[in-house]
Amino acid sequence: MVAVYKPAGWLVHRTGLDAGETRFVMQALRDQIGQHVYPVHRLDKGTCGVLVMGLHPQAARALAQAFQGHHTHKEYLAFVRGWAPSACEVDHALRPDDAPPDAPVQDARTHFQCLAQLEIDESSDGRFPTTRASLVHAVPLTGRRHQIRRHLKHIAHPIIGDATHGKGPLNRWWAERLGLQRLWLHAWKLSLPHPATGERLHLHSGLTLPDADAAPAPLQPCVRDWQERLLSLPWHNAAWPQSAPFVSM
Question: Could you list the active site residues?
Fold first, then answer.
């Protein structure tokens, strides 16, 4: 298997839904390591972070079975509108995005924890004198497409920069202040069984929170966006989790 850091703005593989895109993780990785790779799971184009692939069909099959059997543990960070609940579990079934309206819904559950809050004395909406936001830790307990994005919208805390499920004026307001237009969703940590040995692997994107124990790793450009633009904001009521023994990407 191979684990990589997927930058924001890259597709995992070619798709007719985004025919104009020219950057694909599978193609770039194949060229870098000189062999074919096999997709196992997917991250949205706008999401950055930890991504794994198989180096041969048998490994890809074992990894895919681990994801399907819920033997993996995924952790994300999201920058969202408003002050999110301190902790909650969203149990809200979802219909696939491209399914007809009468298609059956699928069970979908996500655990959220608010890590820190932010309030800026500037209005992004004429109804309110200030602008509030939260940094949220998300652990999907099922694996539906766009699950975290849709569940955060469901509880009225859409991800900043989410053009599909968020608020356009607010996204543009934050883009002006952060100097960057992007989806603020980060695939932070992933643990899963090794496809050959079954040994538990712990992978980490390299992003460290302000009070984390781990020494900062060399930063990928997208991690630097989070570290230097987002985590440098004046957060308060912070409850940063301590870092686990993960292997940094």
Answer: 44
